[in-house]
Each structure stands twice: as structure tokens, then as C-alpha cells.
Amino acid sequence: MGSARFVPTMELTEGLLAGAVIALAVAGFARHRGWGIALPVLIVGIAIGLAPFGPQAPSNAGELFLIILAPLVFGEALSASYRDLRRVGRPILLLAIGLVLAGSLIVGYVVTLIVPGIPWSVALALGAILAPTDAVSVAAVAKRAGLPHRVVHILEGESLVNDGTGLTLLRVALVVAAAGSVTATEVALVLGLSVIGGVVVGTVIGLILVWLIRRSRDPLVANAAILLAPFPGYFIAEAIEGSGILAVVVAALIAAHGMSTDAGFRGRPASLAAWQQITFVLQAWAFFLIGLELPQTLMNIRSDQWSVLPWLVGGVLLTLIVTRFVFVALMGLVSRDAGITRGGWVVIGWAGTRGPVSGLAAFTLPVLLESGSALPDRNLLLATTLCVIVITLLLSPTLAVLSRRLHLTEDDTADEQRRLRRALITSALERLDDLSEDAAETGEELPDRVVEELRSAYESRLRGLSEHATPEMADSGHRLRLLAELIHAQQEELIRWRDTRQISDATMRTVQHELDLQLATIKRSGNL
To answer: Can you tell me the mean pLDDT for 131-142?
Structure first.
């Protein structure tokens, strides 16, 4: 899109590595203190960007943001559940499509009022960049605020899907800026191709990953494919004019469902642990780059635009906030059956954090249009975008304060988990009886003492006498093999409960992780 080819020099590479180390150190300190990592890393990035020494803002920031954001968005989507998102699909689609379109148009109109002479297409481009909320920022803020699961699912789903709408509308705006005008048919074609292309590519990549998960005997191979999947997904979709971000999200949701559904996938704990670490590192680096870029971007705007910038930032920010509140309020009136309280809708209306995806979109703005003319006010758009990102991140901690004032709390799943654990223990005991009967029929050696010890341990857990106790794992091969079989029985029952909608994916994944760890311990002990 008009940017130069990204060729990392030794000096640039050293600077990027130094920046990554600094970002990770600050993020690690913030996490140790129990803080969110976005603001501390962002502030340190701004400070280093202002300093005369240390890592400097790279000239090819668009490529760097792309390298970071494709796997980062994939990692965020991998921790989500399409089943949970589907339950709140209607409000997600209204926010991800309707609000982004409305916000882009209204912001574009406000920009034309504040910046005299700016082309409508360029103003619309800024609206498309800032209308979507950010998957990385919103997910972190929503989870830390302790919101009800249904509200969290709406915010997560909106932020994962709306980037496709915003980036597609940005593509339309740039086409208008280059051509002067487009027809409604051309706009519909661009929008349709972007959505369909992204969904198709993401689905194909996701199904390939699921096939590998189910068929590959070596979990290392499957996990390596999952690790690399964001890049072909993004670039193939973009090559056919589809939405790369949407392709990455769809592929991740399908892969996540495939991993959780396959009870025998041995690579699940390693994959989830690896992606948690990758997401943490990339989050820190992305927010650091935004902070690093802000001072340089402000210095690049023309002197006559300094008086316009505060009004533009304030006007755009106020427009985004008001538009979101009005849109969400109307949704609350017409969606009384959505299971969201009035306080929940207020929180959804306030949860409008922007982040790295908006930064990526801004830095992909071309210096020159395809017609050869310069994109008007490009640096002003960049500066406005980064300032709005910083301000919304500064406001993001107020979401937790607001939820407490409205007495919104995280759903209590204790009863659900107790019912689930009772069912899992019962399934393990039933499997133990079946194995004992099969051994008796086939003449297989299965010591009665081992069977009775395991039955006693699980019955004790069932009575609640030692709910969190794990049966003894002495160096008996029979005992370890039986324990592995009992855990497999519980994994299968867990998936059945999820498939029959008796529990949410969030509860399912919590318990599944515990079972995966128990099974991994058993296999290490007995080399099974």
C-alpha cells in the first residue's frame, strides 16, 4: 500500500531487540505488581521515544505492527470460544458491523468540520481506523474488570470481528481517495469480497489445523503448524483482497474448538502455554511501539496543524464515545431478551478502548495514492490515531471502577463446577468398573488391590471428603495405566457436557486444563 520494502539493518535489528527487552522487562514488572501491562509499557515507550538515546521509532512501523499483530490477534482468538460467542452473536454483529459503519461515517463528518478542506474520503479513512475497538486491549481490560461472562463474551466477540469491518471500510476510503468516487456496487463488492475472502481462507486454514490435531501422531508437528498459521492465513486473505484479520480470527476459533474437542490431543497443554507466552511478549512489544512512535509522529506534522490537532483529537474522541453510548443504548432497548442488565449495557457502552490494531491500520496508510498524488494530511491522521489510542488506554482502568459502582460482578460458577466434577468422578468410576469387568473376561492381570485403592480414592472425592486430592501414583504400571484411562473417561464426559450445553466453554477449559496436567504428570511418571 505504498510503503517501502522492509529491510532490517543491523542497527535497526539491535534497536528492535533492545526495545523488545525493555518492553518485556516493564511488562514483567507490571504483571508482578498485579497491574495491567498496557499503560506502563506505553508510558515507558513514550519516555524512550522522547529521549535522545535508546531505541528509536522505526521508519517501517507498518510492517512491524503487521508482524506483531497477526499472531497477537490469533493468540487472543485462540483463547476465545466460538460456541460462547455464538450465544451472543446478535449483539456482537450489531456492534461489529453496525456500530463500526455508523461510527466511521459520523467521525468522518466531524473531521470534515474540524479540518477545513480535508477530502471526505480521507476523513472517512480516519473514522474507519478508529471506529473498531481493539481485541488486544479490550480482552485484557474486560477480564481484569471481573465482568459477567456474557458481557465479556460480547466485548471479546465485537473486538475480534469489528477489525474486519473497519479495515475493509478503510480500503474503500482509500479507493475513493485515489479514484475520486466509487459506485455503491463497487463498495458492496469490496465489502463482500473482504468478508467472504477472510472467512473462506480462515475456515480452510482452521480445518487444516483441526485435521493435523486429529491425525498427527506427533503433537510437536501439530503445534508447529498452529504456531505458524497466522501468517499464511493473513497474507493469503490479503492477496485475494480479503480481510486478513478476519481470516486469522476464524482460523484461531476453529483451531481452538478442535483442540478442546479432541480428548486425546496430547499437545494441548504445550500449545496453550506457548501461546500465553507469545501473546504476553507481543502485547508488550506492540504497546511499546505505539509509545515509541508517538513523539516522532507528533514531530512530523506541519507547524500549522498543531493548533488543529487538539481539537481534532478531542472531537474524534468525544464523537466515538457519544456514538457508542447512543448505539448501545438503542441496542439495550430493542434487545431486552439478550440477558444483559442495564448496568451491563452501560459498561458495554463505556468499553471503547483502542489499541495496536488501529495503530497498524494508521501506519498502512500510503504516502502516495495509486494516482501518484500524496495522501492529504497523512501525518495528521497518524498523530490523531496514536493520541486517541493513548487516551483510551489511560481511560481503560475506569471500566473496573464503573463495573464496581454498578455492582456488576463475575458470574459465580462454583455450583456449575461442583455438578461437573461430580459427573466426571462418576464417569471415572464407571470406566473403572468396565475395565475391571473386561480384565476378568479376558484374563488380563489387573490387581484387585490397585482397583480398590483407586475406587476408594475417587469415591472419597465424590463424597467431598478430599475434593482436591489426587489418587496416589506409586510406581505401579497397572496403577498409572488405570489412572490414565480414568482421566480419559473424565475428558470424554467433560466434552459431552460442553456439547450438550450444560456448561460454558470457559468452565470446560478450566477443568480440561486440570485434567491435561494430571495426565501429563502420569505419563511422565510411567513413561506412557
So the answer is: 78
Enumerate residues 6+ apart whose C-beta is below 8 A from 108: 120, 123, 124, 125, 126, 127
475 alpha-carbon distance from chain centroid: 42
Q: Which phi-psi region, left, alpha or beta, contains residue 501 (left: φ > 0; alpha: ψ -120 to 50)?
A: left
User: Total domain count for the chain?
Assistant: 2
User: By CB neighbour count within 10 A (0-12 exposed, 13-18 middle, 19+ buried), where does 34 fall?
Assistant: exposed
Whichever domain contains 210, its CATH number is: 1.20.1530.20
Q: What is the mean pLDDT of residues 252-279?
A: 87
Q: Nearest-5° angle of CA 265, CA 73, CA 327?
A: 120
Tell me if 1 is assigned to some domain: no
User: Quick check: 473 pLDDT over 50?
Assistant: no
**Rounded distance, CA 143 to CA 162, Å?**
19
Residues 400 and 492 in one domain: no
Q: Which residues form the domain of 363?
A: 10-405
Cell 480414592 locates to 457
Please report, in angstroms and rounded to a whole number, the separation of the first and last CA atoms in the chain. 53
Q: Angle of helix 149-179 relative to helix 244-261, nearest 10 degrees?
A: 150
In this structure, is the dihedral angle defined by the CA atoms of residues 35, 37, 40 and 43, taken in order, positive or negative?
negative
Q: 306 by DSSP, 3-state: which?
A: coil
Q: State whether 464 and 324 are in the same domain.
A: no
**Does residue 3 fall inside a structural domain?**
no
Q: What is the rounded CA–CA span in Å between residue 339 and residue 154? A: 11
Is 4 part of a structural domain of the chain?
Answer: no
Q: Which residues fall within 8 angstroms of residue 514, CB to CB, at 6 or more apart?
A: none
Same domain, 424 and 321: no
Same domain, 63 and 124: yes
The residues that bridge with 368 in the sheet, in sequence order, are 374
Shared-domain flag, residues 317 and 439: no
Domain-terminating residue out of 371, 405, 439: 405
Residue 349 has a CB neighbour count (10 Å cut-off) of 19
Among 86-90, 306-310, 461-465, the minimum mean pLDDT is found in 461-465
Residue written as cell 498523530?
Answer: 383
Whether residue 298 lies inside any domain: the answer is: yes
Comparing CA positions, the residue from 420, 412, 390 lying closest to residue 313 is 390
**Cell 456492534 sits at which residue?**
95
Query: Are the CB atoms for 78 and 306 separated by under 8 Å?
Result: no
